[in-house]
Amino acid sequence: MARRIGIVGVPPLVVIEAINRAGDLIVDLDEPQLRAPIDQTAAHIPRVYCAILRTVVLNCLHLRLDEVVIDVGPGKCDGALHVAEVVADLLPIPVIRTRNQDSRPFGHPLCTSPLPLVEKFRRITKGVQSAAPYGPMTVCPPTCGFWGVPPRDFSLLALFPDTTHVFGWTRCMENKTPADLDLERQVDPDLPTVFFSQSFCAKAALAKHLAAKHPRAIAVDCDVAASNSTRAKIEAFLELSGIEPGGGTS
After folding, report:
1. What distance in Å separates the CA atoms of residue 172 and residue 109, rounded to the nearest whole number?
2. What is the DSSP letter of 249?
């Protein structure tokens, strides 16, 4: 019988390959898997942790799992290292700590494809569950950039045109090299770019730093869901950059 393996972050390729060969089901614990108040995690993890790690704990409180694999290395964050301890005490199942330092590049065709940004992110996050390489895709001429991590609230991505290229840790995620800092900090200075991070995420420091150096950028963050204020900032930035939010160039 297939087991249900929860994963956090991007486990090493050898781990994903083993799960795929066994025919086990992978459950991405970074993503909301159920409808339940995230404040249910308050007894186990501080509210000042990012919404992604709080979502991990929320999923672990409710889902039936046979094993959890957590990347606690430089490809994730120290927060995941500490959450691994919390989850290990909460669950009567194995909690495996891994450190993904894979360096073989798989490319990032989705990041530069003409797909809607929401679909880009759906495919990239789903791709973590497979060791298979990505197929070639058409490269679209970009009109703007999105740098950062996948937001917990994917509806935020609908504000961007299909011609958005993806940078930052999400590009590392598709490349299956989550600890590749050189790739993570790559940007295009000619593209108006939104530098995004979850509130309370350590990557907010890099987002703010790179945005300050970029000639056409804004840094934004959001917690569990994108507020009207965050959406308005992004829409205003895109419009001032000559880009119709959710469309093409104006």
Report:
1. 12
2. B
Given pLDDT bands bounded at 50, 70 and 90, which one contains residue 49? very high
The reported pLDDT for the residue numbered 133 is: 84
In the chain, what is the greatest distance between 2 CA atoms, to the nearest angstrom? 55
Strand partners, 124: none
Reply yes or no on whether the pLDDT at 249 is more than 60: no
The tally of CA atoms less than 13 A away on the side-chain side of residue 198 is 26
Distance in angstroms (rounded) separating the CA atoms of residues 41 and 78: 18
Query: Residue ranges of the domains in the chain?
Result: 4-98, 117-240
pLDDT digits (tens, 9 = 90+) for 72-127: 999 999 899 999 999 999 999 999 999 999 999 999 999 999 999 999 999 999 99
Q: Which CATH class is domain 4-98?
A: alpha beta
Q: What pLDDT, on the 0 to 100 scale, is given for residue 248?
A: 46
Angle at 127 between CA 194 and CA 139, to 5 degrees: 55
- DSSP label of 45: S
Tokens of 131: 């060791």
Q: Which two tokens stand for residue 49?
A: 């942790």
Q: How far apart are CA 52 and CA 224, in angstroms?
A: 8
Q: Structure pTM? A: 0.91
**Could you tell me if 39 and 62 are in contact, meaning their C-beta atoms sit under 8 angstroms apart?**
no
Phi, psi of 196, rounded to the nearest 5 degrees: -110, 140
